[in-house]
Structures are given as C-alpha cells and as structure tokens.
Write a structure and sequence with these properties.
With 223 residues, this protein is mainly alpha-helical. The protein has nine helices and four strands. The strands form two sheets. Strands 1-4 form a two-stranded parallel sheet.
Length: 223
C-alpha cells in the first residue's frame, strides 16, 4: 500500500456496477482511490479487487507480481456448500476463479508474472492430480495418480501453462546470513545475535527458512 506507483497510476476503465454504493472514482483518478473505495465498501470488495488487478495487469509502467500462497488450495473443493450440502468447486467462486484465470493465462499480465507457492501444511488442501501432472511434481506422500484417477477437465484447463520453479529444500549458510542482515536492518530483532547463536539456530533448523526465522531467531530474540 505504500508503493509510490499507487498514487501515480490512474484508473483507465470505469468501475460500473449495478447498485454499487456511491463514491467510486472516475476514470483518470489515482488507482489508490479505487483501492480505498473497495476497502470502504465491503459489499463490492470482490468486484473492486477484479478491477484493481486488471489495472495492474494491463499497465506497463511498473513490474507487477501477483503472488498466491497455498496455491494448491485453488485446485479443489471449497468449504462452501450448496443447498444440498455438496462442496462447491473453487472455480464457481468469483475470487478463486479470478486467480485461476491469471494463473493459466486467460487474463494476461503484460509487465510481470503470476507466482504460486504450493504447500503441504494444510492437509485439507493437498495438491490435486491436475497440479501434480501439470507441474510434474515429485509425490513423496501417498500414491502417484494413475490412469484410473479421476480428473477434472476444468482444473486441467486452469493448470495449463503452469511452469514449475523448484527451490532448494534448505538455505545455505550465506543465504541465512543475508536473511539475518535483512532482519537486523529492518529492526525486526530487538538484539543482534552472536555468531554462536546464529550458527546454533541455523543448525537446529537444518537450513529451513521458516524454522530458522520463526522458531529460531524470533522466538529467541523477539522478547
């Protein structure tokens, strides 16, 4: 919200929605005004989000990165139910479908990229067959999907064009030191750790970034 581009970028398309609350900015107004309108008028927040992302995706002045954590949760069933208590697929919901359309390229980003991070932390939203096959993931938990596994044509469509970007399982010592320097410069830590403490927390975390920061440095020094 603090990027100067938000004040410089203008809205290029009118926000016209039937029965929308008054106060929507006109074409040419700073994009920040449209964002503030969406925050203020919760009833149309999802429509404003769609308009804001469209503005970011089509402008070429600033690079735009649309990042989604727990990306695999978009490729499955939501917690919402139909009147018959059947789970609703995510692509039937406005915001998940919007993100899926950016992910598969149906909505292009002209000066930037879409980045999704997959996680195994939430067992209710594990990667689906469509994601495993589109990204050629290594399945270390459970059985790899085979020809008898049911597939969704809709999710196969939304998974087209995805490219895997593999990251190492752990940081090396130089990356951990650079991360520590960033935390110190941003004054996240109340005290500067000694070399001995730094090395001990790095070894305890086995190079895992989350364990190193949250359960290592922050739990020890942020008191």
């Amino acid at each position: 919200m603090g990027h100067p581009g938000l004040k410089k970028l203008p809205t290029t398309s009118p926000f016209s929605l039937e029965k929308a609350p008054p106060g929507a900015p006109a074409v040419g107004a700073p994009l920040m005004q449209l964002i503030e309108y969406g925050i203020r008028e919760v009833s149309v927040a999802s429509f404003v989000l769609e308009a804001v992302l469209a503005e970011f995706a089509t402008q070429t002045t600033y690079p735009f990165l649309l990042a989604v954590d727990d990306f695999q949760a978009l490729y499955g069933q939501s917690q919402y139910k139909t009147p018959q208590y059947l789970p609703i697929d995510t692509y039937h919901l406005s915001v998940p479908r919007l993100l899926l359309e950016y992910a598969c390229g149906s909505r292009p980003i002209y000066n930037g990229a879409f980045l999704g991070a997959i996680s195994l932390y939430h067992t209710s939203y594990l990667p689906t067959t469509e994601l495993y096959e589109a990204l050629d993931l290594d399945l270390t938990h459970g059985r790899r999907p085979d020809s008898y596994t049911k597939r969704s044509e809709a999710f196969q469509h939304y998974a087209k064009g995805l490219q895997p970007f593999r990251v190492p399982d752990r940081m090396d010592i130089r990356e951990a030191a650079a991360l520590l320097d960033t935390l110190i410069k941003e004054r996240v830590l109340h005290t500067v750790p000694s070399d001995q403490l730094f090395l001990s927390k790095y070894c305890e975390a086995d190079g895992n970034p989350k364990e190193f920061v949250w359960r290592g440095l922050l739990s020890t020094l942020d008191t």
